[in-house]
Request: fold
Amino acid sequence: IQLTQSPSSLSASVGDRVTITCRASQGISSYLAWYQQKPGKAPKLLIYAASTLQSGVPSRFSGSGSGTDFTLTISSLQPEDFATYYCQQLNSYPRTFGQGTKVEIK
Amino acid sequence: QVQLQESGPGLVKPSETLSLTCTVSGGSISSYYWSWIRQPPGKGLEWIGYIYYSGSTNYNPSLKSRVTISVDTSKNQFSLKLSSVTAADTAVYYCARDANVDTAMGFYNWFDPWGQGTLVTVSS
Reply:
């Protein structure tokens, strides 16, 4: 299953609302996770089951979608949110990831 | 809480076998699936495969002919071997727990926690 994220990169300011899209090549129900990765660090789980916020993750992060179309939304971008974000499908094997969306400072 | 740590050589020669170990601390390796994931420099994430604590495995078809993942429950470790490596196998290699929850809506998985990652360079 191929996952296509859009955009590949974006520039935003602190306080902006940011939306990242992940589209699956076939239906994956809600078997999708989102990760945040900062340079030189391992990915960090943000959301699983498409919309369930991992414990300890700020509530400004939210996920939605089902089937083939999913979104990750950051309601008010904070300085620590500048990173690369990946979606991952867990509907079937092999597990696959989107190509990533880099969120940069405007 | 559970922590994972990768270890192994940082430099491997072409055509040789890459060998890494992931040590699980703060919890038991039992009753979970454990995965290896890699990330070439500046690129995205690629799932390599998983092992269940009982020893069952599942590999990415793109690497299946060259990959072996094994587990040592007595040491709370699992390992990756990748044979016949080339420069294309140069990457940061991560280990991660494949966690899950069984709900009325479905059986959901995710990768958490992850190890810090280890860079393996394939070069002569």
